[in-house]
Amino acid sequence: MANRFMDLLEYQGKQLFAKHGVPVSPGRPATTVQEAVAAADELGYPVVVKAQVLVGGRGKAGGVKLADDREQAEEHAGAILGLDIKGLRVRELWIEKASEIEEEYYAAFVFDRSAKKPMAMFSKMGGMDVEAITDEDPEAMRMLHVDPLLGFQDFHGRRLAFEADIAEDVIRPVGVMLGKLYEVFVAEDATLVEVNPLIVKTDRSLLALDAKVTIDDNALYRHPDTAEMRNISDEDPQESLAKERGLTYVPLEGNIGILGNGAGLVMSTLDVIALAGGRAANFCDLGGGGDAEGVVDALEVITRDPQVKSIFFNIFGGITRCDEVAKGILAALERMTIELPIVVRLDGTNAEEGRKILADAAIQNVHPEATMLDGARRAVELAA
Ligand code: GDP
Ligand code: MN
Fold first, then answer.
1. Are residues 221 and 335 in the same domain?
2. How many domains are there within the chain?
3. CA-to-CA distance for 159 and 142, rounded, in angstroms?
4. Does 106 participate in catalysis according to the annotation?
5. pTM to 2 decimal places
6. Are residues 203 and 253 in the same domain?
7. Residues 232-265: pLDDT tens digits?
8. Of 199, 234, 269, at which residue does a domain stop?
9. What strands, in cross-sheet order, belong to the sheet with 310-317?
């Protein structure tokens, strides 16, 4: 089951903008404070430090901050990295050269499902979300359906800008910019291109200060560069399910589903799988829970990934006892049907009892192993 849509981070959207001539401010991505400061130094101050998460309203949540010098850049980067914005942890920043803002507008192209046509939207009340704009004054949001055959011409854009009642000197340039945004929408197979705010700078030039781009998944094969942009904080159904069940789940690219207890063990399992010549499709950390409930939850999350061809259960019993985990696995398999091979390595507290429980149950697709390397080799072999 594939995702239907792929949301891009702001800076990824801006990369597509730049490709199609939509003006954006220069910037650099960063994942550490050090990188952020280096990026800021390189760009020159003032800069804006921006959280890269797939939700709007980052500004209000403290995820967008202006820095006038290196000290502030360091301080803001430190504060924003790790910040929780609407349930999403900030792992990446975008450091951008700051702009002097004179006006904030709203611009978007969306695919209107009911009309089966793209729709252009424009308002001079940018910087707040769409709902807030239409709540305050429905007339302030100007809209226009696009005939896909005729396309969206600059004069359509000028008409929207004129209707939105913006200053005369920027009507023509806004028309041009909307035309370029439509080009992004079409050329990149987007279902949404939103710029909020689209700003007029003090020198009266225009700039896309923010970018929200959603790509139609079914068209990704046409855009290998965009497909590469998929990021691990991207919300997919499995991740949401894992989050809901309180499990740590990370999707990867291979074909072996990994389940372990404890982050350290799970990480070393990835290495051992690689050593055995395989690649993990994902991993799920059971944490302390080895009971049937926890195992069912984890197996559900892991097997939902169609890439998975075998499952490697790697358990080192400490507080979690291996016989408990073995019983948990059997109980889970009674409740759900899994046809994939499941390799189970049990070691540590009560490992022998655990392996005996599994051996006695003699389930065809469950393969007990005593060591991590043997387990990994078996899982790789069975995934082939
Ligand atoms: P959002 O809150 O997630 O929509 O993030 P935005 O990228 O839209 O930024 C939020 C707000 O921060 C904008 O509406 C601006 O008011 C402000 N902001 C962002 N970048 C700059 C900048 O370069 N200069 C100034 N002065 N303000 C900025
Ligand atoms: Mn915004």
1. no
2. 3
3. 10
4. yes
5. 0.65
6. no
7. 455 566 666 676 666 777 778 899 999 988 778 8
8. 234
9. 248-251, 280-285, 256-260, 310-317, 342-348, 366-369
